[in-house]
Amino acid sequence: MSAPKREQYAVVVIGAGPAGLAATASAAGAGLSTLLLDENAGPGGQVWRAISSTPVTREAVLGADYWSGAELATAARDSGAEIIHRATVWSLDRNLELGVSVGGGSAFIKAKRVIIATGALERPFPIPGWTLPGVMTAGAAQTMLKSSGLVPDGRTIIAGQGPLLWLLAAQILRLGGRIDRVLDTTPRANYMAALPHAFAFMTSPYVMKGLAMMREVRAKVPVVKGVTELAAAGDGKLASVSYVAGSKRETLPADLLLLHQGVVPNVNLAMAAGVEHRWNESQLCWTPVLDADGNSSVPGIAIAGDGAGIGGAQAAIWRGRIAARAAIAALAPAAVAKLDPIAALRTGLARAERGRAFLDVLFQPAPQFRIPKGDTIVCRCEEITAQDVLDSVAIGATGPNQLKAYRRTGMGPCQGRLCGLTVTELMAEARGKSPQEIGYYRLRAPVKPIMLSELAALPKSDEATKAVVRG
Amino acid sequence: MFKRAEGDTRRSVTIHVEGRAIEAREGDSVSAALLASGLDARRATAVSGAKRLPYCMMGVCFDCLVTIDGVGNRQGCLVPVVDGMQIEIQKGKREIGK
Amino acid sequence: MRKDYDVAVVGGGLLGSAIAWGLGRLGQRVAVLDEGDIAKRASRANFALVWVQSKGLGMPAYTGWTVRGSQAWPKLADELKAQTDLDVALQQNGGFHLTLGEAEYEQRTQLVARMHNQTGAADYRMEMLLASEVKKMLPLIGPEVSGGSFCPFDGHVNSLRTFRAFHTGMKQFGVDYLPERPVASIAGDGGEFRLATSQGEMRAAKVVLAAGNVNQTLAPMVGLSAPMGPTRGQIVVTERTVPFLPHPLTTIRQTDEGTVMIGDSKEDELDDRVQNLPINAVMADRAQRMFPHLARLNVVRSWTGIRVMPKDGFPIYDQSETHPGAFVACCHSGVTLAANHAFDIARMVKGGALEPELVGAFTAQRFVNDAGAGGSGYY
Prior knowledge:
CATH architecture of chain B: Roll
Number of helices of chain C: 10
Structural class of chain B: mainly beta
Radius of gyration of chain B: 13 Å
Low-confidence stretches of chain B: none
CATH topology of chain B: Ubiquitin-like (UB roll)
Number of domains of chain C: 2
Order of helices and strands of chain B: EEEHEEEEE
Shape of chain B: globular
CATH superfamily of the largest domain in chain C: FAD/NAD(P)-binding domain
Helix content of chain B: under 10%
Low-confidence stretches of chain C: none
Order of helices and strands of chain C: EHEEHEHEHEEHEEEEHEEEHEEEHHH
Mean pLDDT of chain B: 97
Oligomer: heterotrimer
Strand order of the largest sheet of chain B: 3-2-8-6-7
Number of domains of chain B: 1
CATH class of chain B: Alpha Beta
Distance between the termini of chain C: 48 Å
Structural class of chain C: alpha+beta
Helix content of chain C: 25-40%
Radius of gyration of chain C: 21 Å
Number of helices of chain B: 1
CATH architecture of the largest domain in chain C: 3-Layer(bba) Sandwich
Largest sheet of chain B: 5 strands, mixed
CATH class of the largest domain in chain C: Alpha Beta
Largest sheet of chain C: 8 strands, mixed
């Protein structure tokens, strides 16, 4: 863990998941000075987390898709790129200057091209009681499983929908963990709605793997389909989970509730850099406005991977290669001849994206799990409820930024990552507007907290001093 | 809530939680080690004092905040354990000198 | 002809809201026309001081107006609490301007002397204190602090909660808050003003321009003028920490929630989408030299805002000769002067005329006679 060696790089890649590793390997492989910055202790991002250190070495447990990441991690490592883990990029601006914090110190570096590959995070799942100790995301459990070989041990319920949910359940079972029940919240109407996209899906790589995994889980765990209500309860920690499915309402004692309803782009860094985003009606999240090479509205900043719109690990690899190829074409045109032709990359991406539309429709979460009511917490940091948000709309809040002024939502350390989408959709519903019209929090550096001493140690100009010290 | 799967051959590491020694494994994050320990590792929020445990384990939710080697409000899910590390449960707002 | 409202207030920030709340309190039918979610809003970018010391150098009337505002704040806080149950966390036990090193101490000493020598300035007991004296009141100061000025009337408030309390209270008084209606033009004749907004026309018997720097554009539509000289400022904010700062400073304050706000800067740039990180570095450096324990706190947010600033730094309150019933109000210190706006300016607007003994000095006529003479707008 050491600070960047240089002050300037041709390409800076942010995030060492599939897109970031692919982009790094391509860019550095073409001879560009490349820096890969990543917040985690090792490469892999979330999908290949702990790929070079996991204690879960039996290949069948984590599956072939997981282990496929090892090759790319090695390729990036051996590409000649400078790679820094446990590095937090807290600032990126239109001049392609980055503020990066490593080991308690910060540095400014400059890039000719920046490829943001900060991936996705799990969509907020704001049900009653979701802040109770013992309620976690499915991704959290998967992170512990991959990096530490930890599996649920108490009374465990997994609730939600989407491919990751079934993958996690299968992995927990393979490793001897406990799951008492799976509560599937996929809306029944989604199956019909997704039908027009079914053909593409049936011929995609997802289908066989997905079905096999669901069979594997069903063989060992009771699965309840069509769950339309969900709540966690307990005094100071999770004690029970209640749900409604059809006409049946049931309360189960529980120690651990794992929630998941898909992933959404992690937009904070890109938005703070000024990259234009628009509301994506099918994925119900903000996605950046990009050209075919992943270039954003800010010259020099490209976005690859799930941060560009959810596409999964394979699509992320192709997008990383495409973005890197565009950087190489701009900075080292002579090296382009040795690369795969762009048509081949685009074909690869199209193949990887096959079936995505089906998944988007099938696993679009139901409104009641995205737009909470009453005293359900919306903003976990500031502990603001759905009713608080509605009360603010009643006295005049038109969007997330005016709401901040009234109620501090999004002003805590997570900076809106866990409440932003909920706030937008909740206000849109309350005001009868589209999420696009409502908008999102205006984000600024630092996009992750840094120590005041780090900020204080950054270069200061006389001009800056004069702007502050005024007598 | 969590247990270690069989076949984990990583080196053992000792950390101290509120002065009490617990065993972790090299490569564990502080948060994972706390959850695996079975200790009551619930922090109190800075707003209402409500009890919380880690939610996302990937650096975005800030519910894993913990005092590590005397420095408060660190994201336990992003910090790997080191032998001899001193952990204190975060009790509400950041304290002076921590 | 039936008018929609007695008064249309243009601008729903702290200043417009205070006046609208005050008018609603007096039983007036009021509409507040405001912009939407993304706007240059000093009301959500301010430093929340209720500040007296050093205000009014170059204009003694401003000192008196500021002291009056400070003294009326407890009444405002009490009324807001009674009406909305929101505690705006008003604290008025005195505030500091701390200095680092001897040169800054000398400079501040001279400013304090100039303030004392200015005839007509209300006495607000601003005094210089040595570091040893400061330390008795602020035990955590660092060794580089050379001293500072202290004024017992200074204080601060939770300005976002004040904003929310005004808006909550406005609703209870029946004031119509109408966001997403920026005013494009104002026409007035026959005792009626017609305001063209993006969502149609609105009519009112009187109009109060409280649109911050935009007043410069709106004022000429009703025979007024409001020359503005906005500046850009930046603030960084830390995570919540336990209470450590019993008095606010000009550049550091701890909110009742526990966060530490660190300011501030002044630039002529007016793009509030970008921030100048070297400025944040200077502010952070000075803050940790004043209070070394802050060094390890996490910065969770920072922001850039555009100050509402009349050209000479002093407030503008004026009424139109050509368009009776049209008023303009703008000032930098929307927090400090909130009580004056809620009580005094609202009363004057309802009565149809500004009271010269209180606000006569703040007419924009002063710019006609002496264009651009600068003074001490704040601190």
